[in-house]
Amino acid sequence: MASANALRSLVRPSIPVSRRIYPIVLAGASFSTGSTLSAAAPPPIKNRRDLPKKTKKTYKKNANIVAVKKPNPGERRAFRKRIQLSNNSALPVQGLDELSAETMVEDASKGKIFAIPDQVVDQLRTLEAFKTTQTWNLFRRPHFLVRQETVELMSRLRDSKTNKEALKCVLTGSRLSGKSMAILQAMSHALLDGWVVIHIPEGQDLTNGNTEYSPIADTTDPMQFAQPVYCFKLLQNIYKANKPVLEQFQLQKDWSKLTNLKRGATLADLALSAKESEYAWPTIHALWTELTLPGRPPVLFTLDGLAHINKISDYRDPSFNEVHAHDLVLVRMFVDALSGKTELPNGGAIIAATSENNSQHHPSQELVLSQLEAGQASKEIPKPNPYERKYDERVYDALKNSFVMRLEGVSKEEARALMEYWGASGLVRDVLNARTVSQKWALGGHGNVGEMERVALMTMRM
Ligand SMILES: *[C@@H]1O[C@H](CO)[C@@H](O)[C@H](O)[C@H]1NC(C)=O
Ligand SMILES: *[C@@H]1O[C@H](CO)[C@@H](O)[C@H](O)[C@H]1NC(C)=O
Predict the structure, then answer these.
(1) Which of 8, 165, 221, 305 has its CA 20 to 30 A from that of 140?
(2) Up-side HSE of residue 23: CA atoms within 13 Å toward CB?
(3) Is the CB of 174 under 6 A from ligand 2?
(4) Ligand 2 site, residue 357, Cβ cutoff 6 A
(5) Is the peptide bond before 222 cis (omega within 30 degrees of 0)?
(6) C-alpha closest to that of 365 among 373, 120, 300
(7) pLDDT digits over 75-110, tens only?
(8) What DSSP element (H or E) covers 183?
(9) Taking the mean position of all CA atoms in its chain, how far away is CA 211?
(10) From the CB of 405, is ligand 1 less than 6 Å away?
């Protein structure tokens, strides 16, 4: 069959001779008829597969395929979460002071912009205090505005150190009102003042089921869980950011069951002793135990995204029951400190931030916070909704001893200071006067910093 076909195609010309295309022969040019002819003539049709195909025109796919290297696992996420803290297109702003431990406590600092010292910038970066929602990438170097609320919060931090009594504080307010910035400011103050700082940048990361977890031996009813990989990274960050302070203090308890450290080992040695994630949680626990002994530096323990740790987590226990976030031991450690169950004999602060614009309604947390806020203002205490069935006693216990601090818009004077800073950085061309400041302040939802940035720097961010 095959040979017969082949023979036929040899015998019969596949297209009429008259339609053959002959090469143009240039005078004097040498050529070979055979090869040029066979290149010009279409291939013989042997079966229907050789018929000219109707090509479907696709304009989208495969039009211009250029080999692009696929990003490695985690690369896209890293790009999305990348923090850029300087921008060479911005003008350096002269004449602003650098932050010091005392700066943010002083009334005179209200409404002023300060530069964060480079050393602290590195520590804050290690602790993951900077967020992608903030506009650091537009300026030459990181600065922040000290607001009225900043001074109030920092004064409370200072008092907690003086009185050796922990500040337990929940920051609340609308979206983009500066809660995460207030946490960053508290961290800066603590780092400058020789505290140990521990920061959980996103409560969500602990409860959304995206990090490994393992049950803790001998815990039943309810079973408790450690998150080894998360804890390992956290421990390394704690070590890197707090090394100079941790090196100054020797261990007081015997941790020989956990690690074989020499006599006279320091807190830094302890933090460094966990070489595998399996030992991360026991080591964090040991470090925390040491830090809460008398004679240690004050501790600042902060968490952003409180609502995410005051709920049922996305984890399941081996019998497929839901796991309450408070049964994750790292969360537990934070919650116990926030509720006052763990005392901080050297002073210090536990600060959590939560947005009022969470997509999910969180009845227990909202109720407690509104009750605390009303109590602080000597107003009538809101009552629980009798029809609400989802109140969670554990959330109430976690929050009942905290001080609620509300962050909303900045004042007009503070807005003016911010806009002058933006102007000096070359980002705002408007002439600054009472009218333009008022206008931006109003457009930014009465001084909501994030909204003002959106209004004034919008073109820059796109
Ligand atoms: C630097 O600032 C300019 C505006 O001044 C902005 O367009 C650019 O995106 C910024 N660069 C980065 C890397 O954010
Ligand atoms: C956030 O919530 C407040 C009050 O609950 C509301 O006034 C504001 O418009 C909300 N903001 C956004 C961006 O949803």
Answers:
(1) 305
(2) 16
(3) yes
(4) yes
(5) yes
(6) 373
(7) 888 888 889 999 999 999 999 999 998 999 999 999
(8) helix 179-192
(9) 15
(10) no
